[in-house]
């Protein structure tokens, strides 16, 4: 995962991003909060809840981009979120087709291979 995060830690970040302000943190968040606060992806609030830092939001976005690129490589008709598609297109990892879909470029495939080797 990103920056050595486990799947459980990434799930905790996703849960925090979707959590309403006064709701109680889940067990997943509780298990992973100490590390995520330590690497500055979360900040604790006074009421016992957590909030994402800018770095945490960025980690979630990068994760969405990687998952989108992998999904597009597996299934060319995959729909990407507009912000993810815009970012990947700007970076040259995907290209727009005449049918309104996207294809993974050679640079995108290189990136996916690099990610697979470093997992």
Instruction: Give the rounded overall mean pLDDT.
Output: 91
Shape: elongated
Instruction: List the strand order in the largest sheet.
Output: 1-2
Element-level helix/strand string:
HHEEHHEEH
Strand count: 4
Main sheet record: 2 strands, antiparallel
Give the C-alpha Rg. 16 Å
* Low-pLDDT windows of residues: none
Structural class: mainly alpha
Gap between N and C termini: 7 Å
Helix content: 55-70%
Number of helices: 5
The percent range for strand residues is 5-15%
Top keywords for this entry?
119 residues, two-stranded antiparallel sheet, 5 helices, 55% helix, 10% strand, elongated
What does this structure look like?
With 119 residues, the protein is mostly helical. It contains five helices and four strands. The chain has a two-stranded antiparallel ribbon with strand order 1-2. β1 (42-44) and β2 (50-52) form a beta hairpin. α3 (54-74) packs across α4 (82-90). The mean pLDDT is 91.
In short:
This protein is mainly α. The chain has helices spanning 7-18, 27-38, 54-74, 82-90, 106-117, and strands at 42-44, 50-52, 94-96, 102-104.
